[in-house]
Amino acid sequence: AFNVMAFIKRKVRIFYYNMAMIEKIFIQYPFLRYVSAILIMAVLFHMSSKPGTDLPSLFYGSDKILHTIAYAALGCSFSFWFKPALWKKFPIRIALVVFLLTVLYGVSDEFHQSFTPGRFVSGYDLIADGIGAILAIVAYRYYLQVVFFKNHLKR
C-alpha cells in the first residue's frame, strides 16, 4: 500500500537537505544569493508579456493558484538574499522586507500587464501574490528553525 504521509515526509526531507546544500554554496559564492530571484523575475516578466489569449486556463481560478506558487518561489528567492544570521537576529524585519519586495514586484507585474493585449490588472492577483509571499516566508523560517539552526548548533 502507498503511504502518502511517508511519501510527503521523504520529499520534505530531501527538499531541506537540498536547501542546506544551497546555503553552503551561498556561503562560498555570495553573489549567487541573487541569481534565483533575478531569473524568476525574468520569467514572470516574460509571462506577463504574453497576450491573454496565449495563456491556458486549467479551470476557473487556476491563475490565482499559479500566482501563489510563482510568488512563493519569488519570496523564497528573496529570502535567500539575507544570511541566516540576519534572519535569526531580525526575523520580523527581514520577513517584512521579503514580503514587501515580493508584493511590490507583483504590483509592478500587474502594471506591466496593463499594457499587454488581453491582460488586465487584478487585485485578486495581488492577493494571491501576497499569499505566496507569506507561504515562502513561513516555509523559509521553518527551514531555518528546524533544519539550519538545529544542525549548526550541534557543531
Quick synopsis:
The protein is mainly alpha-helical and 155 residues long. 77% of the residues lie in helices and 0% in strands.
Which regions contain 5 or more consecutive residues with pLDDT less than 50?
none
The level of helicity is over 70%
Mean pLDDT: 86
Shape: globular
What is the number of helices? 6
Residue share in β-strands: under 5%
Report on the structure:
With 155 residues, the protein is mostly helical. Helices cover 77% and strands 0% of the residues. The protein contains 6 helices and no strands. The protein has helices at residues 4-28, 35-48, 62-80, 84-89, 91-113, 123-154. Helix 2 packs parallel to helix 5 (91-113). The N and C termini lie far apart (39 Å). 21% of the residues are buried.
Question: Any chance you could write out the topology, listing elements then pairs?
Answer:
Elements: H1 4-28, H2 35-48, H3 62-80, H4 84-89, H5 91-113, H6 123-154
Features:
single chain, 155 residues, mainly alpha, 6 helices
